[in-house]
Design brief:
Layout lengths: L13 H13 L6 E6 L12 E5 L3 H11 L3 H5 L10 E5 L2 E2 L12 E6 L5
Parallel strand pairs: 1-5
Antiparallel strand pairs: 1-2, 3-4, 3-5
Amino acid sequence: MRVAPLPPQRERSHEVRVRAAELDMNSTDHTNIVATRVASPLRSYTDGRAIVEAEGVTVRDALADLDRRYPGMRFRMIDEQDRIRPHIRLYVNTDAVERLDHPLGRGDTLHLICALSGG
């Protein structure tokens, strides 16, 4: 009996790769747009969308852009002292974000993760 090989793991969804390629091909300016994967508890801000775009050269810039597009979203992740809230984890690709001045590059993916708790 022959077993078909598993398909290779995809780092980003097809839609995100296609959109990133379109942005690179059509871009004449130097804006930095990153795909942002939104955790399900935050999707009420994005009308249920799991992947949205954000513009910025740092995580701080991208979160400010997300807050312009989706008012109130940043406050759920960042406190009044401009620190990442304890139940939130941010990643750029696979790198954990410790500070909001973490740089973003073209083609990066920003992941917004919420910790689950309960009892």
